[in-house]
From TrEMBL:
Positions of region (Disordered): 185-243
Species classification: Bacteria, Bacillati, Actinomycetota, Actinomycetes, Kitasatosporales
Basic and acidic residues bias locations: 228-237
Keyword ATP-binding found: no
Pfam families on file: PadR (PF03551)
This protein's name: Helix-turn-helix transcriptional regulator
Length: 243
């Protein structure tokens, strides 16, 4: 399994843990809630869903609402498929949430992990945040060393670009420091924000801008940030239909 497909499966399981969804609704949530999935096709999502079904982590159900039942025969359209998380799928997602290995700190995976922090235990959140901070501090050290070696050979614009990159990483490190301090103090992200502390990923940092409230029905009752992006794709007319 590739790293990106693993992130997609994680995100799909996390969203379906909230409630069952049609494929189009799920794709829209992925586009608007998780910046790492700003642009991906049905050709990417549906193989993922089929894999999760085959693994026993999801089940497919025909649309069961009265509207769906009436609309299908009247319009001559096939009933939509609803994807629902199984008990095994929920258990598997909880296992994924508990993982704190190096993949959790990488740019794309960290954004997805942070989006589901509302469903993650505090000790795991701390390990992921501290791991991310350590990774960025290492990156920052290398960037500074590289800039010191090449400064004299760079033109003004390239030099400014290098500085901009460093400042972006520095801002994210400061943001992580604030989050870690809040976690240690036992404060919710939203509580800290109400005190005047910004909880968005700093502009220019790799995960994207986290805004708003995530996982309102989370098990821990705490909020996580979500990158917000517009869904610019049109629905597929044949989306979510049974054969």
């Amino acid at each position: 399994m590739s790293r990106r497909s693993g992130i997609l499966e994680f995100a799909v399981l996390g969203l379906l843990r909230e409630s069952p969804m049609h494929g189009y609704e799920l794709r829209k949530r992925l586009n608007t809630s998780l910046g790492v999935f700003r642009a991906f096709s049905y050709g990417t999502l549906y193989p993922c869903l089929k894999t999760l079904v085959a693994s026993g982590w999801l089940i497919e159900e025909s649309g069961s609402t009265t509207e769906d039942a009436l609309a299908a025969p009247l319009a001559g359209r096939r009933a939509k498929i609803v994807y629902r998380l199984t008990a095994e799928g929920k258990e598997h997602f909880e296992e994924l949430l508990a993982q704190t290995g190096p993949d959790a700190y990488e740019d794309e995976h960290f954004a997805a992990r942070f989006a589901f922090f509302g469903q993650t235990s505090r000790d795991v959140r701390m390990r992921v945040l501290e791991g991310r901070r350590s990774r960025l501090e290492e990156r920052l050290e290398k960037m500074r060393a590289s800039l010191a070696r090449t400064r004299e050979r760079l033109d003004d614009y390239t030099l400014e670009l290098q500085r901009h990159g460093m400042e972006s990483v520095e801002r994210e490190v400061r943001w992580l420091n604030e989050l870690i301090e809040s976690e240690r103090a036992g404060r919710d992200v939203k509580d800290s924000a109400s005190e005047g502390t910004s909880r968005g990923v700093p502009e220019g940092s790799s995960p994207g801008a986290f805004e708003g409230s995530a996982q309102q029905n989370s098990t821990s009752g705490e909020t996580g940030g979500l990158p917000r992006h517009r869904d610019q794709s049109r629905p597929d007319p044949s989306d979510d239909t049974t054969t």
